Automatic annotation (TrEMBL):
Compartment annotation: Cell membrane; Cytoplasm
Residues that hold GTP according to the record: 94-101, 176-180, 241-244
Provenance organism: Candidatus Ornithospirochaeta stercoripullorum
Protein name as it appears in the record: Signal recognition particle receptor FtsY
Gene it is expressed from: ftsY
Pfam family, one: SRP54_N
Enzyme Commission number: 3.6.5.4
Length: 291
């Protein structure tokens, strides 16, 4: 069950309680623990206080759906689809260890099943075995891949991938990227360089998207990563991995509130089929313990 532990805490808190100061204090602690952050938590609790006072509510259960309504302002699914018959480039970003390369493989299978002709681009030429890892996925999935030797210029990989896609009539390029965090400045410059190559090759702006892969269990780190990558190359959305009971979910609300980023996919396991489009209603109901 997604976010079961956190959802259970909220369900217990809202169930059968009288609305008093101790309720709001406990709610505040629970939301901060759930990675919603101090500022957003203050805003939510203050709005709930005002609602309770204005509507003269006495039972906490009456506030549960109001809180879901508040959170829904910040959470949106990514609804656009790649345009068939055109070159679409999805640059997939994320720090090492979040499941970025595996997510690309899952996306490749998903979009192939949706009728797209997909090409993989091994743009993470810095991490040991990253190219080989994506190559193995491509072989297992029966997909074409554009790659170069480790240490090669990732911009050149993207250039070659677009050239190949144009020649072969591919619809969608899924491009892996470096995720080194020990030198943020170099990483961001590399991503910006790849960004320039894609624009220079004439890919339509509407067909070029940048998605950040975030580990659902990392909490506040996910917010920091989103801010960092968005600063380097303006993001279009996020993809969640490890979307299960270990995750609290509040960081996603923060990312939505701060950057307005929608969610494209959620990944739940290691198999290629363990991916599905983000469902806001399911997410919020689970987060709030309303299932």
């Amino acid at each position: 069950m997604f976010f079961k532990k956190f959802g259970e805490k909220l369900k217990s808190l809202f169930g059968g309680r009288k609305i008093d100061e101790s309720f709001f204090e406990e709610l505040e602690d629970t939301l901060i623990e759930g990675d919603l952050g101090a500022r957003l938590t203050d805003e939510i609790v203050e709005e709930l206080r005002e609602v309770a006072k204005k509507e003269k509510l006495s039972e906490a259960t009456e506030l549960q759906r109001k809180m879901k309504e508040i959170l829904s302002r910040y959470i949106q699914p990514y609804s656009e689809k790649p345009e068939k018959g055109k070159i679409n480039v999805y640059m997939i970003l994320g720090v090492n260890g979040v499941g970025k390369t595996t997510s690309i493989a899952k996306m490749a299978k998903y979009y192939t099943r949706e009728g797209y002709k997909v090409l993989l681009a091994a743009g993470d030429t810095f991490r040991a075995a990253a190219v080989d890892q994506l190559d193995i996925h491509a072989e297992r999935l029966g997909m074409r891949i554009v790659k170069q030797q480790m240490g090669s210029d990732p911009g050149a990989v993207i250039y070659d991938a677009i050239t190949s896609a144009m020649a072969q009539g591919d619809d969608l390029i899924l491009a892996d990227t470096a995720g080194r965090m020990h030198n943020k400045e170099n990483l961001m410059k590399e991503l910006q360089k790849m960004d320039k190559v894609i624009h220079a090759r004439g890919v339509d702006e509407k067909n070029y998207k940048k998605f950040l892969v975030i580990d659902s269990t990392t909490g506040q780190n996910g917010v920091s990563q989103a801010l960092l990558f968005n600063q380097a190359v303006k993001l279009d959305g996020v993809i969640l991995t490890k979307y299960d009971s270990a995750a609290k979910g509040g960081a996603l609300v923060q990312i939505g509130r701060t950057l307005g980023l929608p969610v494209l996919f959620v990944c739940t396991g290691e198999k290629y089929d363990d991916i599905k489009p983000f469902d806001r209603e399911e997410f919020l109901s689970s987060l709030m313990g309303l299932e």
